[in-house]
């Protein structure tokens, strides 16, 4: 147990030290479990989102993209069931210190903070309320969306018609969601503001089971393809009695986080709950050829999956990896090249030789349009390699004295540490091929 929490501690401090993740409003002491993605974190999160989008939208003819607004009519949330008890956590309150806790996450019957007696559980809604317009009154109350998919359902007809779609088809979107979580925990695992990547697959009810299995499979393969090992992923079917208000079936994809097996993605059969309720509440007919399609949903947090990808990739090597022996522990982020925040580091062998620096700058300019490239000339070359290994940069390109004669550079691979001599004019091709 100690070891696991150590690893999480390391990941948290590494994430800050190397510019991946900062606490929100840090100079004011932080704010309510919100986090900011630093220069490397935003690159990595964008890479995750791009991989998801490529897989779920661009590589398919039957899934369409969408970017709906965060603020919607409050009627959406009445229809979806989020404003009623449906979207609520069961909370217990400590009679002594008055703190509230989620009942399902408590391990004991007494308050985990002060040992006090706990109240009977009560429902607490997770929607974040806000006001639209100049007056803070009931008529102007709405909510920050708690899931991105409602924007998809209310646009079902728009997409169906404008894309001339035929069942089965899907609509996908990536965007922020907000939940007033009572026990936000485990760094960016559970936060109050997060980003979801959701796809809603509309199909005939008789095909729902088949597509459920298909999408579960597709989603598992997405993780495997991006370097998550099979041993660190498993599925868990949510028992009938614990299903969310909209779900007919739910399977969680669990990742083996340093703090235990936890959900990273949910695959749900939402039946016709959403389309039929929006039809009823809006008066708009959302049937397709006379029936309400069923919805199979795949829903993953961009931030939560980023934590899984970092946890999977984070490795410490005692005494270094032998390139030049070092005393300290060396960190390597062995992540899929497509997710690495920096793709290439361009390194002149030494910084005080004008020709070398000029050439390195040229190589940097050549590559920067196609890749995220970092230029670094400070410190010994081995130290610079290690700095790049630590943030998962797959390629280090070194410009040395031979470069000035034959226009070739060395390309060093992060994982094998092998170096290959490559001509400058074929660098883009070379890197794209690997
Ligand atoms: P939990 O039981 O952990 O509260 P949930 O079952 O309510 O989660 P869903 O509504 O299925 O979660 O959300 C789909 C996905 O959105 C989750 O698998 C997760 O990746 C992400 N997600 C949900 N809530 C949060 C949160 N508070 N912080 C970060 N990501 C979240």
From TrEMBL:
<dbReference type="GO" id="GO:1990742">
    <property type="term" value="C:microvesicle"/>
</dbReference>
<keyword id="KW-0030">Aminoacyl-tRNA synthetase</keyword>
<keyword id="KW-0648">Protein biosynthesis</keyword>
<keyword id="KW-0436">Ligase</keyword>
<dbReference type="GO" id="GO:0005737">
    <property type="term" value="C:cytoplasm"/>
</dbReference>
<comment type="similarity">
    <text>Belongs to the class-II aminoacyl-tRNA synthetase family.</text>
</comment>
<dbReference type="GO" id="GO:0004820">
    <property type="term" value="F:glycine-tRNA ligase activity"/>
</dbReference>
<dbReference type="GO" id="GO:0006426">
    <property type="term" value="P:glycyl-tRNA aminoacylation"/>
</dbReference>
<dbReference type="InterPro" id="IPR002314">
    <property type="entry name" value="aa-tRNA-synt_IIb"/>
</dbReference>
<dbReference type="InterPro" id="IPR045864">
    <property type="entry name" value="aa-tRNA-synth_II/BPL/LPL"/>
</dbReference>
<dbReference type="InterPro" id="IPR036621">
    <property type="entry name" value="Anticodon-bd_dom_sf"/>
</dbReference>
<dbReference type="InterPro" id="IPR002315">
    <property type="entry name" value="tRNA-synt_gly"/>
</dbReference>
<protein>
    <recommendedName>
        <fullName>glycine--tRNA ligase</fullName>
        <ecNumber>6.1.1.14</ecNumber>
    </recommendedName>
</protein>
<dbReference type="InterPro" id="IPR006195">
    <property type="entry name" value="aa-tRNA-synth_II"/>
</dbReference>
<feature type="domain" description="Aminoacyl-transfer RNA synthetases class-II family profile">
    <location>
        <begin position="6"/>
        <end position="341"/>
    </location>
</feature>
<dbReference type="GO" id="GO:0070062">
    <property type="term" value="C:extracellular exosome"/>
</dbReference>
<dbReference type="Pfam" id="PF03129">
    <property type="entry name" value="HGTP_anticodon"/>
</dbReference>
<keyword id="KW-0547">Nucleotide-binding</keyword>
<keyword id="KW-0067">ATP-binding</keyword>
<keyword id="KW-0963">Cytoplasm</keyword>
<dbReference type="InterPro" id="IPR033731">
    <property type="entry name" value="GlyRS-like_core"/>
</dbReference>
<dbReference type="InterPro" id="IPR004154">
    <property type="entry name" value="Anticodon-bd"/>
</dbReference>
<dbReference type="GO" id="GO:0005524">
    <property type="term" value="F:ATP binding"/>
</dbReference>
<dbReference type="GO" id="GO:0015966">
    <property type="term" value="P:diadenosine tetraphosphate biosynthetic process"/>
</dbReference>
<dbReference type="InterPro" id="IPR027031">
    <property type="entry name" value="Gly-tRNA_synthase/POLG2"/>
</dbReference>
<dbReference type="Pfam" id="PF00587">
    <property type="entry name" value="tRNA-synt_2b"/>
</dbReference>
<dbReference type="GO" id="GO:0004081">
    <property type="term" value="F:bis(5'-nucleosyl)-tetraphosphatase (asymmetrical) activity"/>
</dbReference>
């Amino acid at each position: 147990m100690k070891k696991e929490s150590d690893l999480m501690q390391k990941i948290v401090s590494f994430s800050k030290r190397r510019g991946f993740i900062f606490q929100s409003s840090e100079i004011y002491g932080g704010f309510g479990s919100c986090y900011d993605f630093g220069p490397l974190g935003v690159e990595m999160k964008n890479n995750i989102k791009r991989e998801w989008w490529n897989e779920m939208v661009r590589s398919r003819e039957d899934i369409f993209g969408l970017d709906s607004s965060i603020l919607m009519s409050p009627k959406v949330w009445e229809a979806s069931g989020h404003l009623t008890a449906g979207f609520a956590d069961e909370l217990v309150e400590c009679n002594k210190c008055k703190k509230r806790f989620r009942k399902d996450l408590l391990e004991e019957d007494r308050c985990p903070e002060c040992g006090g007696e706990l109240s009977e559980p009560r429902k607490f809604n997770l929607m974040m309320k806000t006001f639209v317009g100049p007056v803070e009154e009931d008529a102007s109350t709405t909510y920050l969306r708690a899931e991105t998919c409602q924007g998809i359902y209310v646009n079902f007809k728009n997409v169906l018609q404008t894309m001339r779609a035929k069942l089965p088809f899907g609509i996908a979107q990536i965007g922020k969601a907000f939940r007033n979580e009572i026990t936000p925990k485990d760094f960016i695992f559970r936060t109050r503001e997060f980003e979801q990547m959701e796809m809603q697959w509309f199909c005939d009810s008789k095909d729902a089971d088949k597509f459920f299995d298909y999408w579960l499979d597709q989603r598992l393969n997405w993780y495997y393809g991006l370097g998550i090992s099979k041993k660190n992923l498993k599925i868990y079917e949510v028992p009938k009695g614990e299903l969310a208000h909209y779900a007919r079936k739910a399977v969680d994809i669990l990742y083996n986080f340093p703090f235990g097996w936890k959900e990273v993605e949910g695959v749900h059969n939402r039946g016709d709950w959403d389309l039929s309720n929006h039809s009823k509440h809006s008066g708009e007919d959302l049937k397709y050829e006379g029936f309400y399609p069923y919805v199979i949903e795949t829903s993953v947090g961009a931030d939560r999956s980023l934590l899984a990808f970092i946890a999977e990739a984070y490795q410490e090597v005692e005494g270094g990896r032998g390139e030049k022996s070092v005393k300290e522990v060396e960190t390597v982020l062995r992540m899929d090249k497509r997710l690495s925040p920096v793709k290439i580091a361009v390194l002149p062998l030494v910084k005080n030789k004008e020709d070398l620096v000029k050439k390195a700058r040229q190589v940097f300019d050549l590559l920067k349009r196609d890749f995220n490239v970092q230029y670094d000339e400070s410190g010994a070359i081995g130290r610079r390699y290690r700095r790049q290994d630590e943030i998962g940069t797959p390629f280090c390109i070194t410009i040395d004295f031979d470069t000035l004669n034959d226009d070739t550079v060395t390309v060093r691979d992060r994982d094998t540490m092998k170096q290959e001599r490559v001509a400058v004019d074929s660098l883009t091709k070379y890197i794209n091929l690997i």
